[in-house]
Write a structure and sequence with these properties.
Layout (H helix, E strand, L loop, with lengths): L1 H26 L11 E2 L5 E3 L2 E2 H17 L4 H17 L10 E2 L5 E3 L5 H17 L2 H17 L18 E2 L1 H12 L6 H19 L10 E2 L9 H4 E2 L1 H18 L2 H18 L11 E2 L13 E2 H18 L2 H17 L9 E2 L19 H16 L5
Helix pairs in contact: 1-13, 2-3, 2-4, 3-4, 4-5, 4-6, 6-7, 6-9, 9-10, 9-11, 10-11, 11-12, 11-13
Length: about 400
């Protein structure tokens, strides 16, 4: 098996460094105005020039992370700096909240209507500050993190369309992203503050959103963690739940908490049992917990990030525990992902239920330089460890 793990490590490394990273460096860099052009069709031609804050920050994070973790390559740092400088100049409103989208030149298009732009800004500028040593980047990261903490109880603030008080609920996205974000920023946070935040996020994810009886994660629950019998209360997003579980595994590994790791793995396996399409293969995007018709019309699509996060979770779970079920599911998801999404340069993102390419694009409003390179890097890391290699 060691030799097989080595081959998998090589596959992930080669795809990341020889295809994915060069694709984004070659085709997305906006040398005229700064930042990145993420709307790229199948032939890597730009089809829209709007700039989405999530994706701008995620690309800064990716190239900063590569610089920090793999090699101090000047071109990687320059690529990160191009985005960081653009975002520092144009990304926030007067109160320091991060917009959702900008024009190519940096004029605001969409108001800062939720905290996820701030989350990815904190992630990006934390990694970039570590790479560049720029004090201003560190300050931006901490300010964005404070925004997230300040707004976590009401992520959309004044832009929330929900009528207050009738059916209050909280969403998995907030504690799961805070778990990952806090780990990302560990070098900037005092130990006591970091551990308190990790305690908070583990408790929320594993007690409020993970259903103890069914073993799957609900996307939305009542403030006390109980279930709500409505569209939003029944929605299951298998990919989100699986991604949240590898965040929990990372916390468990940090704390040497085997019980947390094993609970997270059990939830991954149960989510795959629940979310796998037995007829056509692949993981459904959305499902209704009670088997009712989902409200999301795209429920049956197969998305790149869902399968990539599953590969990370399964590879990590297998490295940490050696559970055969992780390995069996890993092989199943690997075969589907690499035969359906992988393509020269960058992966496709959106398939129909049958597994055919639905949107002939490599990047867009929601897909940029993040899930593919992060997952390839993390899977390479897992399999290199299993093969006894160093990165």
């Amino acid at each position: 098996m060691t030799q097989h793990f080595g081959k998998l490590a090589d596959q992930y490394r080669q795809t990341l460094l020889d295809e994915i990273v060069p694709f984004w460096q070659t085709h997305s860099i906006d040398t005229k105005y700064g930042g990145y052009l993420t709307c790229l069709d199948a032939s890597a031609q730009v089809y829209d020039t709007d700039k989405f804050i999530w994706l701008q920050n995620r690309q800064v994070w990716t190239f900063s992370m590569l610089y920090n973790q793999l090699a101090h390559r000047d071109d990687w740092l320059e690529t990160a700096k191009l985005g960081a400088d653009f975002l520092a100049a144009h990304g926030r409103d007067a109160e320091g909240n991060w917009y959702f989208s900008l024009t190519r030149t940096g004029k605001p298009l969409t108001q800062p209507y939720n905290i996820f732009s701030d989350c990815f800004a904190a992630m990006a500028f934390s990694q970039y500050a570590l790479a560049s040593g720029e004090e201003s980047a560190k300050e931006i990261a901490l300010q964005a993190y404070q925004n997230v903490l300040r707004r976590q109880e009401n992520p959309k603030g004044q832009y929330n369309k929900v009528y207050p008080g009738t059916r209050p609920m909280k969403t998995l996205a907030v504690p799961m992203i805070l778990a990952n974000l806090s780990l990302e920023m560990d070098w900037l946070l005092a130990d006591e503050r970091l551990e308190a935040m990790l305690d908070q996020t583990v408790k929320a994810v594993m007690e409020d959103f993970l259903d103890a009886e069914r073993g799957i994660l609900y996307e939305n629950v009542a403030p006390d963690g109980s279930h709500l019998d409505c569209f939003e209360g029944r929605v299951i997003n298998p990919g989100h739940g699986i991604e949240a579980m590898w965040f929990m595994m990372a916390i468990g590994e940090r704390r040497q908490d085997l019980a947390l790791i094993e609970r997270a793995i059990a939830a991954v396996l149960r989510s795959l049992d629940f979310g796998w399409d037995q007829e056509y293969g692949g993981i459904f995007y959305f499902l209704d917990a009670e088997g009712h018709p989902p409200q999301q019309l795209e429920w049956s699509q197969k998305l790149w990030w869902v399968h990539l996060e599953a590969l990370v979770a399964l590879a990590m779970g297998y490295r940490l525990t050696g559970q055969d079920a992780c390995w069996q599911w890993y092989q199943r998801v690997h075969d589907y992902a690499w035969s359906h999404f992988a393509d020269a340069g960058e992966w496709f993102g959106y398939l129909n239920r049958q597994g055919d390419v639905l949107l002939n694009l490599k990047g867009g409003k929601w897909k940029g330089c993040f899930h593919v390179p992060r997952a390839l890097y993390l899977c390479w890391q897992q399999f290199a460890g299993l093969a006894g290699q160093t990165l």
